[in-house]
Amino acid sequence: MTSSLSRSEPTVTVIVATYNSATSLEFTLRSILNQTLQDFEVWVIGDACTDQTAAVVEGFGDTRLNFYNRTQNSGSQALPNNDGLERARGKYIAYLGHDDLWFPWHLSELVSALETQQADLVHAMCARLLPQGLQGIWGPPSTGKGYHLVHIPPSCILHLRGKLTWKAAEDALVGVDVDFLRRMSLSGHRIHFHPRLSVLKFPSGGWRAYDPRTPKPQQQHWKDLSDRPEALEHRILTEAAQVLSQHLNPLYPLPQLIRHLMRHLTYWLTLQGISENKLIHPLLKMHLNRTRKHKRKVRGLD
After folding, report:
1. Residue 84: per-residue pLDDT
2. Which residues pair with 14 in a beta bridge?
3. In this protein, which residues make up the domain named Glycosyltransferase 2-like (predicted)?
């Protein structure tokens, strides 16, 4: 473990849960260090990493970067995030996926938005990037939906410290990130959307991120982020408008459509409390285990 802590408490603690992704992690950490708000600490929590993650963190020579490697792999970000929360000293907590990148204004604008709106949690706009290009933008829930019904990537989120911990994957009937936001919403915490693009998300399944043979897109996007971030923001939003105009009525392949419908059925059963039924609960657990195996395969883990 590496750790160099200053005496004063930072404004933000950034938690980066990671597993054997040293190449992309380097650029993720660069995007943190490039923030206009510099009063932060970073906890990189390895989920029993066996690659060069520790060397990447130490290689920056920045005392704000700390690394802790779990002794046992948990298979999701939930328990590493909890380890980060236990070590956090910041007034606010932010998360950043080990494949994702922040625009330079991410932390400063979210802290300002949270304080101005007197919210408990605030999230930014996020672009979803796949090898074939931009696939969508995450924003606020659509009209009539609450935050207990949507998925917001954790890389978009900043919240007050001491609100909630993360539920382990085997204990959640939905994704751990969906479960976290759902519990935050249902417990009455105030959630606010900050309408500016500040996150680039590279879904691990779309990039087979854990397969060392696949190309890593973070390097080129980092160059654009560091050289001309406003131009990159404008380009992505322009492309988003074009994608929206072309995909108002998308057609999905049958396997993808079935997975999509099953995911929404699982959410609905969970929200209605039906998921705990003695007959339904085992079926949902079996479906979720199959889903997790599928995700491991497309991410290059199996």
Report:
1. 98
2. 42, 94
3. 13-123
Is 7 a domain residue? no
Question: Same domain for 177 and 193?
Answer: yes
Q: What is the pLDDT of residues 125-150, one digit of tens each?
A: 999 999 989 989 999 998 777 898 88
Domain boundaries, position 271: 254-298
How far apart CA 14 and CA 84 sit, in angstroms, is 8
Which pLDDT value is given to residue 286? 77
Residue 31 located in a structural domain: yes
- Mean pLDDT taken over the chain: 88
Q: Tell me which residue of 68, 72, 8 sits closest to 40, measured CA to CA.
A: 8
- The answer to whether residue 4 scores a pLDDT higher than 60 is no
Tell me, what amino acid is at 236?
I
Say if residues 287 and 173 touch (Cβ distance below 8 Å).
no
Total domains in the chain come to: 2
Picking from 158, 166, 156, the residue whose alpha carbon sits closest to that of residue 75 is 166
46, 172: one domain: yes
Show Cβ contacts of residue 70 under 8 Å, excluding neighbours closer than 6 positions.
Answer: 45, 46, 47, 48, 79, 80, 83
E-only strand ranges, 131-190: 133-138, 157-160
**How is residue 192 written in tokens?**
């606010």
